[in-house]
Design a protein that fits this description.
Layout: H1 3-33, H2 38-45, H3 49-56, H4 64-73, H5 78-82, E1 101-103, E2 109-113, E3 123-130, E4 135-138, E5 146-153, E6 155-160, E7 163-168, E8 172-176, E9 181-184, E10 191-198
Antiparallel strand pairs: 1-2, 2-3, 3-10, 4-9, 5-8, 5-10, 6-7, 6-9
């Protein structure tokens, strides 16, 4: 093997080392972002805790299968695990036309789903709007669920299990939504609010 060959091998080794180091930093950053311990990530991914520790410390070159398991456990693509610098920002855009809209039975209330699909099983948020006289009646969500309604414009009335409260622009109502609940616009003007559903909140007694 000539000098050129040896230099090429060194270059490849240096590149692999740099990629491995980047991978370790990314895995550690994502693990901490999800507030996972090494043991928890090991349980979710099926990769030994010691191997994950070695990856994060850049002490091993993991196989593609190992990287795939970690990516699946961290809910990201392999490309995301291998990409960019540690401080590269996450920036995602959804256009107005891509935002799904739910409409109430009376056609006077609309829920624009602005929440992230990845959190839909435990956290949902919407842009809620109601024409005068509009009403949104909802069945109970799972036990312990809590809904938060922050009024941006107009006035809204919320009824939960026979209890009624009114919120105006700037007010926020929080209530158990694991029982039938209704949001109404009893005023003569349109109303708008941000609605957040926490589906795995602690049960409120």
């Amino acid at each position: 093997m000539g000098v050129e060959g040896r230099d090429k091998v060194k270059a490849l080794e240096a590149g692999a080392q740099a990629l491995s180091g980047q991978l370790g930093k990314t895995v550690q950053r994502l693990r901490k972002a999800y507030n996972l311990s090494l043991s928890e990530l090991s349980e979710h991914s099926g990769v030994a805790k010691s191997i994950i520790s070695q990856i994060e410390r850049n002490e091993t070159n993991p196989t593609l299968a190992t990287i795939w398991r970690l990516a699946q456990a961290l809910d990201v693509s392999i490309e995301r695990v291998l990409q960019g610098a540690e401080d590269e920002p996450f920036l995602e855009k959804s256009s107005k036309g891509e935002t799904p809209i739910l409409v109430s039975d009376d056609g006077k209330c609309r829920l624009a789903i602005v929440g992230w699909i990845k959190t839909v099983e435990w956290l949902q948020w919407y842009l809620f709007s109601a024409d005068p006289g509009g009403q949104l009646a909802s069945d109970p969500h799972q036990r312990g669920s809590v809904e938060s309604l922050s009024v941006l414009e107009g006035e809204l009335e919320v009824e939960v299990a026979g209890v009624i409260e009114i919120a105006r622009a700037g007010d926020t109502l929080r209530y158990r939504c694991d029982r039938p609940h209704v949001i109404r616009n009893q005023s003569k003007k349109p109303a708008q609010a941000i609605m957040v559903n926490i589906l795995k909140a602690a049960v409120m007694e």
